[in-house]
Amino acid sequence: MKLAVVGATGLVGQEILSVLEERSFPFDELYLVASAKSVGQSITFKGKEYKIKGMEEVVKLAPDIAIFSAGGNTSLEWAPKFAEAGTIVIDNSSAWRMDPTKKLIVPEINGHVLTIDDRIIANPNCSTIQMVMALAPLHVKYKLKRIVVSTYQSVTGTGKDAVQQMMDERKGINGPKVYPHPIDMNALPHIDTFLDNGYTKEEMKMVNETRKILGDQTIGVTSTTVRIPSIGGHSEAVNVEFYEDFNISEVRATLASTPGVIVQDDPKNNVYPMPINSKGRDEVFVGRLRRDDSQPNTLNMWIVADNLRKGAATNAVQIAEFMMEKSLVY
């Protein structure tokens, strides 16, 4: 088993290495790949030093699996080259997610659609993953009609430079900026670029990816995504209308029995999901479950998960584990 991690020096790349170590992912050889300026530098993993390699060198080494977290342009250029060499590419960027020839996978929900012919597999957007993890079991029981979601997303979703901007502002340092406005003590209703329809790319990712993962293009989805000065995870206020009616106790029981989901729903004792508690965890946390009395068959819920973990690194590693478990690696 030859494994490559592309983008190994970034926030998600570093998290992928942590997840691989924690889950004792089996490999015989590990190739760490980063941008040209990082080639030759060393990263210590499980007590061993690994030199960072360049793309061309690693393509020739033909790893069995390559987990990409190096941006869309890199994925568009290099994923096909790795795939041609027989590598399974699990890509964390948005490059392949809406390609009709590529699978968009959350293993607990739709891993069963993967086959041995899938050489490029898309990892969904972080905010989409945590939402569908909570909604998928409810969709099975009550059938989703419409989703209204507002997100409160961590600066870690933008990367190391965004975290640095927030910390600089907190210390009164006038350093490099990645956001068009201050982020500390602020909330930016602006994630990714704005489109002609007035929505951002991030908002449309949630619309389109949700439908693709759940395999239902009839679900109505509208989204507002907001960046807030937090670290530890993304939070989402989700209003869900179903075709079938529900009762809250049944919803709670369904979610509590869903693998990868933890219900924290005791507001009288101040128990509800918060990003400060999701940091470093792989589970999706759900709480503030309550009926929307303004219209029939509608539920309000609050969903929190570590965007670097289940929202990115862990989901990618789980896809790799799934492919190996089902003997889909050749």
Automatic annotation (TrEMBL):
Positions annotated to bind phosphate: R97
Binding site for NADP(+): T9, G10, L11, V12, K37, S38, P176, N307
Catalytic-site annotation from UniProt: C126 (acyl-thioester intermediate), H234 (proton acceptor)
Residues reported in the UniProt entry to bind substrate: Q153, R227
EC number from the UniProt entry: 1.2.1.11
Swiss-Prot/TrEMBL keywords: Amino-acid biosynthesis, Diaminopimelate biosynthesis, Lysine biosynthesis, Methionine biosynthesis, NADP, Oxidoreductase, Threonine biosynthesis
Molecular function via GO: aspartate-semialdehyde dehydrogenase activity; NAD binding; NADP binding; protein dimerization activity
Enzyme type, top EC level: oxidoreductase
Substrates-to-products reaction catalysed: L-aspartate 4-semialdehyde + phosphate + NADP(+) = 4-phospho-L-aspartate + NADPH + H(+)
Pathway where this protein functions: Amino-acid biosynthesis; L-threonine biosynthesis; L-threonine from L-aspartate: step 2/5; Amino-acid biosynthesis; L-methionine biosynthesis via de novo pathway; L-homoserine from L-aspartate: step 2/3; Amino-acid biosynthesis; L-lysine biosynthesis via DAP pathway; (S)-tetrahydrodipicolinate from L-aspartate: step 2/4
GO BP field: 'de novo' L-methionine biosynthetic process; diaminopimelate biosynthetic process; isoleucine biosynthetic process; lysine biosynthetic process via diaminopimelate; threonine biosynthetic process
InterPro entries reported for this sequence: Asp_semialdehyde_DH, Asp_semialdehyde_DH_beta, NAD(P)-bd_dom_sf, Semialdehyde_DH_NAD-bd, Semialdhyde_DH_dimer_dom
Residue ranges of every copy of the Semialdehyde dehydrogenase NAD-binding domain listed in the record: 2-117
Sequence similarity: Belongs to the aspartate-semialdehyde dehydrogenase family.
Protein name, UniProt field: Aspartate-semialdehyde dehydrogenase
Organism name: Chryseosolibacter histidini
